[in-house]
Amino acid sequence: MKISVIGTGYVGLVSGTCFSETGITTYCVDINENKINGLNKGIVPIYEPGLERMILKNVEKQRLFFTTNLSESLKDCDVVFIAVGTPPDEDGSADLKHVLSVAHEIGKSIDHYVVIVTKSTVPVGTAKKVKHAVQEEIEKRGVKIEFDIASNPEFLKEGDAIDDFLKPDRIVIGIDSDKAESTMRKLYKPFLLNNHPIIFMDIPSAELTKYAANSMLATKISFMNDIANLCELVGADVNNVRRGIGSDTRIGNKFIYPGAGYGGSCFPKDVKALIKTSDENNYSLEILKAVERVNNYQKSVLFSKLNNHYNGNLKGKNIALWGLSFKPNTDDMRDAPSLVIIDKLTKAGANVTAYDPVAMDESKRRIGNKINYAKDQYEALVDADALLLVTEWSEFRIPNFKVVEKLMKNKLIIDGRNIFDPKEMKELGFTYYSIGRKIINY
After folding, report:
1. In the sheet where 147-151 sits, what is the strand order?
2. Which entry of 18, 28, 231, 266 is annotated as an active-site residue?
3. CA pair distance 7, 249, nearest whole angstrom
4. For the segment 184-235, what is each residue's pLDDT rounded down to a tens digit?
5. Between β-strands 412-415 and 431-433, what pairing exists: parallel, antiparallel or unpaired?
6. Is the distance from CB of 339 to CB of 366 less than 8 angstroms?
7. SS (H, E, C) the chain
8. Residue 304: CB atoms within 10 Å
9. pLDDT (0 to 100) of residue 90
10. Rounded to an integer, what distance in angstroms lies between the CA atom of residue 41 and that of residue 396?
11. Which regions in the chain score pLDDT beneath 50?
């Protein structure tokens, strides 16, 4: 088989590379010439563990190609994936201009039967719009070309995307014809042979499934953050509560870790888009609206703890930040809690020095020299009045606290991911705040 993946962002690049890993000839297409030229030279524009090695291997084996020529990529193509961005519009809805632009280009170029698949996260009804755009261009050409539309949402976790693609919990495919189902079964045959579940359904259900899945996970996170904040007020320990409820198989122990709020490219955008879809259909998703409010509040919790500790006077204080990306093993800072924290700290007159293993270039691209950047986690601590732990990178988990103590001006740690032990922090003489856990007193 030959497939074309339009868009070399996170979803398109990972998906195209992983398809090529299964032996499928894959063309990845993007209008950004610099990005395509870089990929052809082995320069990968995103950080994802294992991705660069896999790209280089499949390019060498001539299964994976990068091009700016969409029309060329569609020659003898069986399936074409639309994997371009769907950024949130000002009203929270998904912006479909890139998706529909690609659909029009496909309609101008196809000359044989293909299955056109939306891989981008798109609201219910997008497949109909894509079908109309493709058909409109075909009719302008005065030809008759058969094609089908399908929806195949992705469920990739940044930092674990390759395993998620090659060893999926489930593969969801929305189709409306037997021919499309047959083609998609052939494409995913390697996954069927390995007994990974493929769920075929109608297209609207497939489109909604992705939003519902991400919104459910976001709901679990915000629920635990709400409970954590209550724990602090009543003297409970959220870790005990988490273990207590996580042992219930109906609830499970995933996505119930409190923290500084969720970010990234999916949860914030998808929650907003699902709320917008609901409002457009005259129904209010009250739970999700509360989820969004709780998450926005949670991103300010670390700043509030610091500000309260210093009685509202942060002017001139030196604050160290460990972690900038919204989660470990990625350089993605979209809607990251660190951005909210940095904004509040700088507005309060604090001096911020940050360290992140991979996201500092991304931070410089986003906010420039608004803060200082350290060469390692310890350099960030020099003369610091406080350390704020924002992202739970592995290298932050067991620091040398003797070095930490020596470098910091004030022994204050605010742990936004609960990775340190409050009892140990007390014994070491640190003032220590975390999320939903009380300070141990002797």
Report:
1. 64-67, 25-29, 2-6, 79-82, 114-118, 147-151, 171-174, 198-201
2. 266
3. 39
4. 999 999 887 878 889 999 999 999 999 999 999 999 999 999 999 999 999 9
5. parallel
6. yes
7. CEEEEECCCHHHHHHHHHHHHCCCEEEEECCCHHHHHHHHCCCCCCCCCCHHHHHHHHHHCCCEEEECCHHHHCCCCCEEEECCCCCECCCCCECCHHHHHHHHHHHHHCCCCEEEEECCCCCCCHHHHHHHHHHHHHHHHCCCCCEEEEECCCCCCCCCHHHHHHCCCCEEEECCCHHHHHHHHHHCHHHHHCCCCEEEECHHHHHHHHHHHHHHHHHHHHHHHHHHHHHHHHCCCHHHHHHHHHCCCCCCCCCCCCCCCCCCCCHHHHHHHHHHHHHHCCCCCHHHHHHHHHHHHHCCHHHHHHHHHCCCCCCCCEEEEECCCCCCCCCCCCCCHHHHHHHHHHHCCCEEEEECCCCHHHHHHHHCCCCEECCCCCHHHCCCCEEEECCCCHHHCCCCHHHHHHHCCCCEEEECCCCCCHHHHHHCCCEEECCCCCCCCC
8. 12
9. 66
10. 33
11. 441-442
Q: Please say whether the beta carbons of 217 and 424 come within 8 A.
A: no
What residue has token string 């360290």? 355
Greatest Cα pair distance in the chain: 83
pTM (2 d.p.): 0.89
Residue 186 amino acid letter:
K
List the 431-433 sheet strands across, edge first: 372-373, 351-355, 318-322, 386-389, 412-415, 431-433
Domains of the chain, each with CATH number or no CATH: 2-201 (3.40.50.720), 211-297 (3.40.50.720), 299-433 (3.40.50.720)
* pLDDT of res. 439: 67
Instruction: Give me the sign of the Cα torsion angle 237, 239, 242, 247.
Output: negative
Write down the residue that tokens 């639309």 correspond to: 82
Q: Check if 28 is active-site.
A: no
pLDDT of residue 265: 81
Torsion angle of the four alpha carbons 311, 317, 318, 323, in this order, in degrees rounded to the nearest 10: 40
Q: Which residue has the tokens 């942060």?
A: 314
Task: Compute φ and ψ for 355, nearest 5 degrees.
Answer: -140, 135
**Cα end-to-end span (Å), the chain:** 68
Q: How far apart are CA 417 and CA 121, in angstroms?
A: 28
Identify the burial level of 204 via C-beta atoms within 10 angstroms of its C-beta, where 0-12 means exposed, 13-18 middle and 19 or more buried. Answer: middle
pLDDT at 120: 84
